Automatic annotation (TrEMBL):
Function: A probable RNA chaperone. Forms a complex with KhpB which binds to cellular RNA and controls its expression. Plays a role in peptidoglycan (PG) homeostasis and cell length regulation.
Main localisation: cytoplasm
PANTHER family named among the record's database cross-references: RNA-BINDING PROTEIN KHPA (PTHR34654:SF1), UPF0109 PROTEIN SCO5592 (PTHR34654)
Subunit-level organization: Forms a complex with KhpB.
UniProt name for this protein: RNA-binding protein KhpA
Organism the protein comes from: Chungangia koreensis
Protein family: Belongs to the KhpA RNA-binding protein family.
Length: 77
């Protein structure tokens, strides 16, 4: 999943080298914490959160077919 998130996010940002993804997993869920350069936050979130929602939709769809755990994507400041 980390590779999928990177594949989606890196072309969107001006500082692709600063894209970081942390995975936090427990028995019932997986949380991917995405952090980008502060100047790129708007590009990742998009107008009214549309880009962030699209990223989450793609990751949730891929994760549901791959994992049996609930999957979340958090965008960190």
């Amino acid at each position: 999943m980390e590779q999928l998130i990177q594949t989606i996010v890196k072309p969107l940002v001006d500082h692709p080298e600063e894209v970081r993804i942390e995975k936090d997993e427990n028995a019932s869920r997986i949380v991917y914490k995405l952090s980008v350069h502060p100047e790129d936050m708007g590009k990742v979130i998009g107008k009214q959160g549309r880009v962030a929602k699209a990223i989450r939709t793609i990751v949730y769809s891929a994760a549901n077919s791959h994992h049996k755990k609930k999957t979340f994507v958090d965008i960190l400041d």
